[in-house]
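Schema walkthrough. Field components (list of strings):
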Amino acid sequence: MVDETILDDDALAAPLEERPDDRVDDERHDEDNRLKPEFVRSVIDALDDGDTGRVHNLVEPLHEADVADLFEILDAGDRPLLAAAIPDLMTGEVIAELNDYVRDDMMEALPPEAVAEIAEQLDTDDAVQLLEDLEPEDQAAILAEMEPEDRAAIESALAYPEETAGRLMSREFVAAPEHMTVGDIIDYLRDADADELPTEFWEVFVVDLAHKPVGTCQLSWIMRAPRSTPLVEVMKRDQTLIPVTMDQEEVGNMFQKYALISAAVVDENGRLVGQMTADDVVHIVSEEAGEDVLLLSGAGDGDINEPIRDAYVARVRWLVANLGTAVVASAIIAMFGAAIEQLVALAVLMPIVASIGGNAGTQTMAVTVRAIAMNQLTRANTRRMIWRELRVALLNGATVAVLIGVAVALLFEPQLGGVIAAAMMINILVAGLAGVAVPVIFERLDQDPAVASSVFVTMITDSMGFFAFLGLAVAAGLAG
Amino acid sequence: MVDETILDDDALAAPLEERPDDRVDDERHDEDNRLKPEFVRSVIDALDDGDTGRVHNLVEPLHEADVADLFEILDAGDRPLLAAAIPDLMTGEVIAELNDYVRDDMMEALPPEAVAEIAEQLDTDDAVQLLEDLEPEDQAAILAEMEPEDRAAIESALAYPEETAGRLMSREFVAAPEHMTVGDIIDYLRDADADELPTEFWEVFVVDLAHKPVGTCQLSWIMRAPRSTPLVEVMKRDQTLIPVTMDQEEVGNMFQKYALISAAVVDENGRLVGQMTADDVVHIVSEEAGEDVLLLSGAGDGDINEPIRDAYVARVRWLVANLGTAVVASAIIAMFGAAIEQLVALAVLMPIVASIGGNAGTQTMAVTVRAIAMNQLTRANTRRMIWRELRVALLNGATVAVLIGVAVALLFEPQLGGVIAAAMMINILVAGLAGVAVPVIFERLDQDPAVASSVFVTMITDSMGFFAFLGLAVAAGLAG
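Field assembly_structure (string):
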């Protein structure tokens, strides 16, 4: 462990300069760094008054990411008004920070030349984001307006599938041949024009004659080494290489596992073609980890800026699928119609068994889906996981079965208490098994386990809940 | 946009050096970079044979993060055997990479001196992780064995609440007084001993005499500037400062929003006390975004390495809570006992209305919880969100109501079809409203909306489903 490194400042300090405002200020942001409703209100009022000067004054002090947030918070109708009021503040960074849906909406309203101009201000990876979801003809019109070189970079990115490293990587990076020294690279960086270098870079990748990475140097290592040192003596040989075809979820897992700040992306032949940096990966990881809750619930993209029609299409198919599984469960109930007619208590109590089973199944399923996504659940430990979940289910089942069994025995009759307790135990065990098995099977079939597991697990726990409870009641001679 | 920056390599290249193995090799990893089951099997076999030499040979080529993965995949009983077989490979990094539960287990088996020795190898933030979940007396015993300076750093971190920047930040960073030049800082870094500097750093923070940050310099800016340039001319004044008390979820949001690689952490007086870097934030973001799915399902921590008893305690309380809400729904059904006795079809069909309503509510709730976590849903746009969800619910409700209404009208009787369609419409609208309102209310009460929303939304949709369907059936004169 080392100490905090602070340089002596006993020497005379330079005269105090003006201090910038802290980013988290009280006037415009709340304690969670969100724009205050009062601030948003004042912008909307100024827009309503048509007072573009006031709008500009209000928005000017904001960081680009906050300007983007402001657009997202405004109603769709107010967004073009805001854009018109602050043309000089509508930088490429603001556009890049916008939510996909909000951005696509705004881009569709602009002529291709204007979008092309914005795209050329951006790094390739941001420009690709800007264009990838537009209609093919809009995309083509915009690309036609761009410089050939930029166009080629974007087209090459679009040739890779969505959510792969090839699509997401930055094509701007610093690579050095292996014969260079520390002094060579420093001189090169000093002499280069700013626009020849990436906006931000944290490592220099060392490549061989075939342009294959042979090692990587963190900038701090280069700064600390004497000028005459060969780069190959400073660099680390053991580096994580990201294949262009790697899915973004795996890229996120690699960055997490190996605690990376940036990593080289290589093509099919092992040649360096781009880099991924941790600031982009933070977004990816958030998206990937956050989408499981949306997928499991059947909410599709789940973005609050998604157009209503898209949200409807994404969600209604899962509701209809659920309708199908609910009908299966109903058919099971219908088999026991005579029993229910005889003993209405069965109808009163049966949803309890189904509901708790569904909840227990969802718990196990959530744990399983998360473990699969994090690469923690593999073929090597699946059996252990199933065994573990069955033991948890045994404990959960016993607890819930005793509670409901005793309550029903007291309120209805003892035998019915025994029946509901047994049905509950069975259903929670089945839920534990299904909660692991369904996502694992989807994963083995190369399907995303978060997408459809819910429907199947719920069908199993609903059907089993009704069947076990009603079936046991009939078997016990209580009715039917 | 700039081109890829590759330096000319027309000069004669240095002789080819040995190439390191790529990290993603075919022998030990599958295509998702997980350890292959066959490889894990061979380690287990060697452990079973007591052949520590073979174990060592198998494990030695692995990256520390993979050694940690291997421990996690092994059964708890095999882990001490593996540790004993590879004492020299059990570095601080392996320990730091271990899953919390697996690590705590292993630490509890070691004497305090051994743990203290491991902790001293680590950066403070990793050492804190190692100690924070141990029993207070174990913690005290370990701290007593450490160097006073390291102990003080860890105690200061432990004084901050869990999951705040103060607990998580690295206390190692490079700060420079504002009178320094680029040459001064380069000379300082060159002359410093390696153990006086952080293991990794990406920015130099410029501070005033009171040790408050006034700006930040990316290393690349320093490298590119002439030696005589004052740091204050190179630095960016507008920087994101993280207060020590900030919750990790907000830290993750700041890094995402402002695309940070590292950021200065400041204490109550605005003084620089630490830094957070993107490699740690990637973990935090993954944990925060991933925990929503676990919390919403009531699965607690949801870690597959959590001891069974902990998993039981975490989950059973939600099952019991759900039992309570299911009983409420049952009480509503019981109110309509006479109607069900008269028309068993009601019992057969009623779970459909409750089930689809529950699903629709879960969809909206997932979207809302995610939007709150991402700071996208604020007081400024809550009303718009509710209105949006109601419109989606109207579309979903209409679709599902028509489908089930027609089917029931054909299979049972027309009037019952009308009743179930109306009940479905009502329940899906209620689900949409509850799906937004419940998490938003929890958030306004400063509660985590992911924790308990599910129980309430399900109770509302179940109860409303049964009440609307059975109540409308009775009102329509179908039964009762």
